[in-house]
Structures are given as structure tokens and as C-alpha cells.
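Lab notes, practical 5.
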Amino acid sequence: MVERCPDKTEVLGPIPSAPTIKLSRDDFRISMEFKEYQASIERYIVNRKSGIEYPVLGLCGESGEVAEKVKKVIRDCDGVLDDEIKREIAKELRDVVWYVARIGMELGFSFEEIVSMNIEKMRSRFERDAVRGRGDNR
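Output from the prediction step:
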């Protein structure tokens, strides 16, 4: 199936240099509480016997689907994104988020804790001007 290529409305390009900013929890507003989200996904868990393995493989698969869509935008549409393609990528991202929350549950962390740890990590990296570089512990 040949996917429709958009008009040149937005083009994928190099990632711009990151500005020096400070992040706070107040910068992140959501319409659903994290606890409510995590409780809601509990109802939809199909495979409860595999522990962490099943959701990790699911995360890999869904992340691969995001990458595949972006690859096709580069290959077929000269890197041009339109609203339809963005919505298709967002549909895959919602599945990525589901698996991230599920993996957190399996590890004993709430989704809120996972997100808070990420915000704290990014805040620290921005403050120390360590956004660029290699390794997880920079």
C-alpha cells in the first residue's frame, strides 16, 4: 500500500540545539491524573503471567511502529509531515505510553514516579549543561 505524501507543510530535519531552560513539574499539565491512568490500564492487561518480559517486548514493538512511520515519511514523502501522519504517529505513541506505564507497574513504580524521575533527570541535565554527551549518568 502506498501511503499518501503530504504537501510540504513540515519537514523532518536535524534536531535543533537545546536551549538552556529550567524545567519544573508546573511545566507539565495533563488532563488525566497519572494514578487514574495507571489504574485504568490495569483493566486492560491481557497477559499477567509473564512479568516484565511481555510488556517490554510490547514496548519494543510499538516503538518500532513509531520508527517505521517516521522512516516511511523520510523515504516516501521527503521528510514532510502533515496532520494525518502526525495523528498516525500519535496513535502509536499512545501504545508506547501504555507499555511504559505497564512496565513501571511490574517494577513497582507508579507512572507518576516514572514521569517525575524523568523530569528530575532532565532538569538536572539542563542545570548542569549536560544534555549532550554520552551515557545515562551524565
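Observations recorded by the TA: DSSP finds four helices and two strands in the chain. The CA atoms of residues 32 and 38 lie 10 Å apart.
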